Amino acid sequence: MAEAVKTALVVGATGVIGRGLMQHLDGLPDWHAIGVSRRPPAESHSAWSRYLAVDLLDPDDAKAKLGGLSEVTHVFYTAFVDAPDQAAQVAPNLALLRNCLEALDPAAAKLQRVVLVEGTKWYGSHLGPFKTPAKEDDPRCPPPMFYHDQEDFLRGFAEARPWSWCALRPQTVCGFSLGSAMNLMTLIGVYAAIRKHQGLSFAYPGKAAAQRALYQVTDAGLLARGQVWAATAEAAADQAFNLTNGDFFRWQNLWPRLADFFGMDAGPVETQRLTETMADKAPVWDEVVEAHGLQPNALESLAAWPFGDYCLGCDYDVMSSTTKIRQAGFAEVLDSEDMFLRLFAEFREARIIP
Ligand SMILES: NC(=O)c1ccc[n+]([C@@H]2O[C@H](COP(=O)([O-])OP(=O)(O)OC[C@H]3O[C@@H](n4cnc5c(N)ncnc54)[C@H](OP(=O)(O)O)[C@@H]3O)[C@@H](O)[C@H]2O)c1
Fold first, then answer.
1. Are residues 233 and 335 in the same domain?
2. DSSP strand E in the chain: where?
3. What range does the domain containing 102 cover?
């Protein structure tokens, strides 16, 4: 018997995580997808059978647009509002999730599961050295951290309802998106291109100790496959799971391979704050775009430098245990160094970077 078609509501469908999920669902015959964000997607997939422009910060807009979606069987929540600091991120990110579910739930009688995306900051990876490898039942980091508020709300909201929830905790999601606050791939790609255009080396911009520390990332495609597993597997109900590529690497080993890819000298470490050193580089990027006939993407839509300072500046190990999700049934792993080279080749092919 053919599997019943499931309807996904992908909230934050144009972000680095949501876009990867939309692409994945696009290839699955038993899924329909409805994408939600404020701005429309830059490209169309067949899965965009329906796209809804919704401002989830506005409860009335959420009710008007989501309040009649009776066909939704699964919610993939991947929206994010940036704010100057962790404390300021809490209220808008909690409001977004609350407005979304309070608007949708009364109509969505077929809803089976809500899959939330959290991250390794759950454990305090952004605050300094933390217990590694981090396990799902390790203590939460001290507040403020909006993942905690979102999960507490989701658990409470789901309690009195017939559907279940699942939370995934990836680290540094690598895929393609425009205008994301957190996209390390495009950030490294434009950093390399700008430095090369200026005749500079591909110097590692973080601290030397950060280049030596162990780090982990999550491929957006692998995460999308994990999200679908999280939405449908019995073992994933009402649980949180770490989800990374399953390996660890050191930037000092990867950086020369990336330098080769960009046709640059890796150079010595040049510790800097990208937020400051790249602040005035938009005109240089425009020259790069012109010189190489690239897609005309503005620098600020490809690189949010504070995120680069965070990812490349962790001078302590950033490691999650993925044992729990593997034992529960999602065992896919990727070689992260190979993933970087594959994704950069895709960005080059798409004329996003030279
Ligand atoms: N990226 C990473 O490396 C990473 C790693 C670990 C965890 N995470 C977590 O994963 C989640 C998603 O992150 P992401 O990096 O995929 O985010 P992102 O690339 O910034 O995408 C955010 C999405 O939310 C939408 N959105 C923002 N405000 C909205 C609003 N008011 N109404 C409706 N839609 C809205 C955005 O579209 P519009 O702006 O057009 O509305 C976009 O589609 C976050 O909780 C993040 O902390 C991310």
1. no
2. 6-11, 31-37, 50-53, 74-77, 113-117, 164-169, 173-174, 214-215, 218-219, 239-242, 249-250
3. 6-172+217-242
User: In angstroms, rounded to a whole number, what is the distance separating the alpha carbons of residues 41 and 330?
Assistant: 29
Establish whether residue 320 lines the binding site of ligand 1, counting it when its CB lies within 6 angstroms of any ligand atom: no
Q: Which amino acid is at 146?
A: F
The pTM of this model reads 0.97
Same domain, 159 and 46: yes
Q: Do 238 and 294 share a domain, yes or no?
A: no
Number of domains forming the structure of the chain = 2
143 and 285, same structural domain?
Answer: no
Among residues 225, 242, 259, which one ends one of the domains? Answer: 242
Q: What is the pLDDT of residue 50?
A: 87
| Cβ burial, residue 214 (10 Å; 0-12/13-18/19+) | middle
Q: Tell me, what's the pLDDT at 180? A: 85
Residue 38 beta carbon below 6 angstroms from any ligand 1 atom: yes
- Which of 204, 184, 207, 171 is CA-nearest to residue 315? 207
Task: For tokens 């393609």, name the residue.
Answer: 176
Residues 60 and 207 in one domain: no
Domain match, 263 and 124 both: no
CB of 304 closer than 6 A to ligand 1? no
Please check whether residue 240 is in contact with residue 36, taking contact to mean a CB–CB distance below 8 angstroms.
no
- The rounded distance, in Å, linking the Cα atoms of 79 and 16 is 10
Residue 140 phi/psi, 5-degree rounding, is: -70, 155
pLDDT at 49: 63
Which atom of ligand 1 is found nearest the CA of 56? 32
